[in-house]
Amino acid sequence: METVRVGVVGVGGMGAFHARTLAAMAHVQLEAIADPLVETARRLGGELGCDALSTPAELMARTDLDGVVIASPDETHADLAIAALDRGLWVLCEKPLATDLADARRVIDAELALGSRRIQLGFMREYDPTHVRLVAELPQIGAVDVVRAVHRNCSPRRRPVRQIVGQSMVHDFHSVRFITGQTIASVHAVGSGPGDDWFRHILAVCELRSGAHAIVEFDDAGFAYEVGFEVLGQHGDLVTATSDLVERRRNGGIETFLGDDWFARFADAYRIQDAAWIASIRRGEAAGPSSWDGYVAQSVVDATLRSLASGTTEQVGNAPVPPLYATT
């Protein structure tokens, strides 16, 4: 089997995970990693036996790569994705695709100019076994009326509202779409406690284009990390559960340790996602969440931010789907 040669830009927590995952795969060669924190890159490069570079430009200039993982800060994603496309590389880009809709559109236009999909976006929940089983069960409950998504995060610091919505809730907005197959038409979002560019809780009530509704509940300072979905249909309901967890019974009560680490919850999904990306490079055909999925999710992010500011329902942009992405 032909070896796939890859590099990773950004080797903080997420990028280092990708690098170690890819380095451990059969018939995959991790050639280089790049990070401005040079000592961090050198330590990881020494561990994994690959070159450690200080800038993305150095990595992109290499001629020995088939693909690149972009796991650098969010605001760099769009420019790096376009640079990778210019080099003819296959791309696995962490979400979000961009931090605003204009930059997301630039990536779309660059891929359209190329004439083929080259980008897989890191909405890893599409590969999570629990979410996959949920989607498989949908035909059993008929047409979807309501979706409820609950996302509890354990953030150690107060993040600006734009980060909360663009880094975390973007996952939930995409999940609503890939689970139901329906796009979000409008959002009415409210936040609570305490304001001043930070809300602990955000509730987004979304109307889908079919007339169904999605309720996205987010907690940025919860006491455990948890992601759950309920789908209410005409002939039944689906609810994701934590049935694989052990209950501890003591002191007259029941305790279940959920954990506070989102890596632990989705580690398998990330590994499956990375393997799917490598397989797509071998096939010469991009798969999984696309840059268009990132653009659509960013449209909902922007509408949510507008709604939090205005206190009113905001419409989500409805740009026509380019033929290149017609099946995504």
Could you give the topology of this structure?
Elements: E1 4-9, H1 13-23, E2 28-34, H2 38-48, E3 51-53, H3 56-60, E4 67-70, H4 77-86, E5 90-93, H5 101-114, E6 119-121, H6 129-137, E7 144-154, H7 161-180, E8 184-194, E9 199-208, E10 213-219, E11 221-233, E12 236-239, E13 247-250, E14 253-256, H8 262-283, H9 291-310, E15 314-315
Helix pairs in contact: 4-5, 5-9, 7-9
Provide an overview of this structure.
- With 328 residues, the chain is an alpha/beta fold.
- The protein has 2 domains: 4-125 and 268-290, 3-Layer(aba) Sandwich (Rossmann fold), CATH 3.40.50.720; 129-265 and 295-315, 2-Layer Sandwich (Dihydrodipicolinate Reductase, domain 2).
- It is built from 9 helices and 15 strands.
- It has helices spanning 13-23, 38-48, 56-60, 77-86, 101-114, 129-137, 161-180, 262-283, 291-310; strands at 4-9, 28-34, 51-53, 67-70, 90-93, 119-121, 144-154, 184-194, 199-208, 213-219, 221-233, 236-239, 247-250, 253-256, 314-315.
- Strand 1, helix 1 (13-23) and strand 2 form a beta-alpha-beta unit.
- The model has no long low-confidence stretch (mean pLDDT 93).
List keywords for this structure.
328 residues; alpha/beta; Dihydrodipicolinate Reductase, domain 2; seven-stranded mixed sheet; 9 helices; 15 strands; globular
CATH class of the largest domain: Alpha Beta
**How many DSSP H or I helices?**
9
* Percent range for β-strand residues: 25-35%
Major beta sheet, specifics?
7 strands, mixed
CATH superfamily of the largest domain: Dihydrodipicolinate Reductase, domain 2
Rg, nearest Å: 20 Å
- Rounded mean pLDDT score: 93
Indicate the structural class: alpha/beta
Q: Into how many domains do the coordinates divide?
A: 2
- N-to-C order of helices and strands: EHEHEHEHEHEHEHEEEEEEEHHE
Q: What percent of the residues sit in helical stretches (DSSP H or I)?
A: 25-40%
Output the strand order for the largest sheet: 12-11-7-10-9-8-15
